[in-house]
Specification:
The protein is of the alpha/beta class and 454 residues long. The chain is built from 22 helices and twelve strands. It has helices at 3-20, 27-36, 45-57, 59-69, 78-93, 99-114, 119-130, 133-140, 148-158, 162-169, 186-194, 217-221, 224-227, 236-245, 262-270, 284-296, 341-344, 347-365, 387-396, 411-418, 421-428, 438-441, and strands at 176-179, 199-202, 209-214, 231-233, 252-256, 276-280, 302-305, 320-326, 368-378, 400-402, 434-436, 446-453. Strands 5, 6, 7, 8, 9, 10, 11 and 12 form an eight-stranded mixed beta sheet that branches. Strands 2-3-1-4 form a four-stranded antiparallel beta sheet. Helix 1 packs across helix 5 (78-93) and helix 6 runs antiparallel to helix 7 (119-130). 41% of the residues are buried. The model has no long low-confidence stretch (mean pLDDT 92).
Length: 454
């Protein structure tokens, strides 16, 4: 039994305890707090993140399995619940680790946590589960279990296609890069990274996108190429947005909800670093990170603006050729890498977020010049935050016509979308917006719609 792995498991339990107690809303916040401490700097970060993410992603299913043998599951201390979740996840998904090792490690940790009070229970439960692994794996082959409210809504949208979505969400997230074409092309970047034993494959569209086949996030951030601003780590779906806005060199672009600058820096690339981008966000911490990314990537046209986008900004009225509204949302399209959204959202949360999205969108329309284009995007696919927001906006803001975004996609992408029954429904109803579901490109789910001002 490796002592260092027992230590890692105990540290994972601290992160899970903090999450399930509600001390942190996002797992990445817990990772960052944990990894900042000097004691943990040598930790196997990727293994820690993989295990935490897997436990939370399959939490509903793991709990159901444990309850089979523990009818008083809810009465157990949280740390013991998390220990059983973690060990059950390992029994089911870490086939390279002998079952006896997983059970013995969990028993050893339970002794240290509660002076042996729960060691017999942990031992008996895990041995029962270990004896029925094949049976439980068949259940989990169906994919991630969604909360009832989300399952019902997506089933109404997708029908049988929902099966492909939940299976896709169960897979590990793919790491995508965006080459900074102000400095390097995708092929050249792939060659440079290969010298550092990182394998990244350029994609056909977007032309600056790469999928990482070998290497992880932390390795990439340590490279000289990253420090020199040659790439940005950005999901593939997110990379579609700037292309669909179609910004041109010399234009004025306003981005509402810029965050730390993923789409901002992409817009600057497509504008060839010519023109002006006014990047708006109310969180000054994010704007500081935006400034660092802009400097790192050699971008000179971004003007950060710290304002609350739910209130009008009169000085920006009719100043922009193009506007991007990247609104805060439930993130239900990002379950593959952010499984905590399964627990932090409900229909009340969606309604609250939708009100914010409507305010941001209506205000942003005032910043657009005649003939200008505005794009609205959210990394979620719930009705409340997508088509219902669009319907409200179009009823309350005149002089705008919806743009058919499909014409801006290359044929290869359109062909892939046409294989989806959901896409056929959108086309038949002349919705014109785009829904990217996670199983389309092994990327985040995303909703995009655009208008042109008459």
């Amino acid at each position: 039994m490796k002592q260092e792995f027992i230590v890692l498991k105990r540290d994972i339990l601290k992160i899970l305890d903090a999450f399930y107690q509600g001390k942190v809303q996002r797992l990445d916040q817990a990772y960052n707090l944990y990894l900042k401490s000097s004691r943990n700097r040598g930790t196997d970060k990727e293994n820690l993140i993989r295990l935490c993410r897997g436990v939370v992603k399959h939490s509903l299913q793991l709990d159901s399995i444990c309850r089979t043998f523990l009818p008083k599951w809810e009465r157990l201390p949280l740390s013991i619940q998390n220990l059983l979740r973690l060990a059950t996840f390992q029994l089911l998904f870490n086939v390279s680790t002998p079952k006896s090792v997983v059970v013995n490690e969990a028993v050893e940790i339970s002794k240290r946590l509660y002076a042996g009070n729960f060691s017999a229970l942990v031992n008996a439960t895990l041995r029962n589960i270990a004896g029925q692994v094949d049976q439980y794996l068949k259940i989990l082959e169906g994919g991630v279990e969604l909360p009832p409210w989300l399952h019902e809504q997506w089933m109404n949208k997708l029908g049988k296609e929902l099966e492909n979505v939940v299976k896709s969400l169960a897979l590990p997230p793919v790491l995508f890069l965006r080459a900074n074409t102000l400095k390097v092309g995708a092929d050249q970047l792939a060659h440079l990274l290969s010298k550092r034993d990182i394998e990244a494959e350029p994609l056909l569209f977007p032309p600056e996108a790469l999928a990482v086949k070998k290497g992880d996030y932390h390795e990439l951030c340590k490279t000289q190429e990253y420090r020199n601003g040659m790439f940005y780590i950005q999901d593939l779906s997110s990379q579609l947005v700037a292309h669909l806005l179609q910004p041109q060199p010399g234009e004025v672009v306003i981005e509402v909800g810029c965050g730390s600058g993923g789409k901002t820096t992409h817009l600057a690339q497509l504008m060839q670093n010519q023109g002006e981008i006014i990047a708006i966000d109310k969180q000054k911490k994010l704007l500081k990170q935006l400034f660092k990314n802009v400097q790192r990537m050699g971008i000179e046209i971004v003007k950060p603006l710290s304002r609350d986008a739910t209130s009008p900004i009169p000085e920006l009225k009719e100043t922009a050729d193009r506007v991007l509204v990247d609104a805060p949302c439930s993130g239900c399209g990002t379950i593959r890498k952010n499984p905590e959204v399964l627990f932090r959202n409900n229909q009340q949360t969606l309604r609250r977020l939708a009100e914010v999205q409507k305010q941001m969108l209506c205000n942003a329309a005032n910043y657009l010049k005649k003939g200008g284009t505005m794009v609205y995007c959210v990394c979620t696919l719930t009705d409340e935050e997508t088509w219902e927001v669009v319907e409200f906006f179009e009823k309350n803001v005149p002089n705008l016509e919806k743009v058919n975004l499909e014409i801006y996609l290359p044929e290869g992408i359109r062909k892939r979308l046409r294989n989806s029954e959901r896409w056929k429904v959108l086309v038949e109803n002349k919705q014109k917006g785009i829904e990217i579901w996670p199983h389309y490109f092994s990327s985040d789910g995303l909703f995009i719609v655009a208008w042109r001002k008459r």
